[in-house]
């Protein structure tokens, strides 16, 4: 019997959802998140804008030199973070605690694949546009919109058809040919387990919460659709603007407004998730909320032991 079959038979206290047993309010996690997003914003938001206009209007260097300088600096911090994440996931002594459920040592999680595709979309126009002679501002301006398209497309696709799309290879903890949940599910699982240090315990608790809560499944699908749809539509608009306006206007819009979209969407997401979690807790006993759904995730014997520990802790906590 797979662990997903056994988990679906677990009966939790009817007055409370299964806890995730994870918080950012410890081990300086909240500070680390703030530092990470601040540095990413400085690297791929502020730095390209400041350098482009200061060099263009102040130093009066050629467009080719201007774009070459920007390209040489963008990606340093994000590259370091990706290398550090790969170390945690594949090489470190604790990598077995962070990898997806049922995955082999060098099986990448879904976030690695999705962010790798998005970074390819980001760097391709950046490198190509700065390599031309003269450099193409229109092409370089497409970097963030192309990142948005590559990152948001899986969110939109899996949000529109949840648990309908299947892949011939493993997608994070989902075995091959298993219906994929909305991509926010794997993003949360992978980021918290690997980058946030939640490890396999969080992967198990997150799976159990998703399987037992109709509200959590709604949260995951709605947020996937929101980020996917708005990201795709706005990215297409930004690319059109990049090629139909002057260099100064197109570059500024394409490197600035995607960050406005991300910040506004993040604020809306936090508000929506908080509201839905309150509704989930208040109405947990209702059959429309406490409703089982099997993900059909296969796990190893060691991971099944962790699952039993997680469910035991949840039962103890509700008692």
UniProtKB/TrEMBL annotation:
TM spans (from-to): 31-55, 61-80, 106-128, 140-161, 225-243, 249-273
Signal sequence annotation: none
UniProt keywords, alphabetically: Membrane, Transmembrane, Transmembrane helix
Organism annotation: Polyporus arcularius HHB13444
Domain of life of the source: Eukaryota
Keyword Transcription: no
Tagged with keyword Thylakoid: no
Protein name as catalogued: Uncharacterized protein
């Amino acid at each position: 019997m797979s662990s997903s079959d056994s988990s679906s038979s677990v009966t939790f206290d009817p007055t409370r959802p299964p806890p995730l047993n994870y918080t950012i309010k410890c081990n300086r996690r909240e500070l680390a998140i703030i530092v990470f997003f601040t540095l990413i914003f400085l690297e791929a938001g502020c730095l390209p804008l400041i350098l482009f206009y200061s060099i263009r209007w102040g130093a009066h260097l050629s467009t080719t030199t201007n774009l070459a300088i920007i390209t040489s600096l963008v990606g340093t911090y994000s590259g370091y973070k990706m290398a550090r994440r790969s170390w945690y996931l594949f090489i470190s002594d604790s990598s077995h605690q962070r990898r997806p459920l049922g995955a082999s040592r060098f099986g990448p999680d879904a976030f690695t694949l999705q962010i790798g595709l998005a970074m390819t979309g980001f760097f391709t126009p950046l490198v190509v546009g700065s390599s031309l002679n003269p450099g193409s501002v229109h092409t370089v301006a497409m970097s963030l919109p192309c990142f948005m398209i590559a990152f948001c497309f899986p969110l939109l696709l899996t949000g529109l058809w949840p648990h309908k799309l299947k892949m011939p290879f493993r997608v994070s903890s989902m075995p091959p040919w298993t219906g994929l949940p909305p991509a926010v599910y794997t993003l949360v699982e992978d980021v918290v387990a690997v980058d946030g240090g939640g490890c396999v315990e969080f992967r198990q608790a997150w799976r159990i919460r998703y399987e037992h809560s109709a509200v959590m499944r709604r949260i995951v699908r709605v947020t996937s659709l929101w980020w996917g749809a708005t990201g795709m539509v706005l990215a297409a608009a930004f690319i059109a603007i990049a090629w139909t306006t002057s260099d100064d206007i197109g570059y500024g819009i394409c490197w600035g407004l995607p960050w406005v979209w991300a910040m506004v969407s993040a604020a809306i997401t936090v508000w929506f998730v908080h509201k839905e979690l309150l509704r989930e807790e208040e109405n947990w006993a209702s059959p429309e909320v406490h409703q089982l759904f099997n993900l059909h995730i296969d796990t190893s014997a060691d991971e099944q032991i962790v699952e039993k520990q997680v469910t035991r802790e949840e039962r103890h906590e509700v008692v």
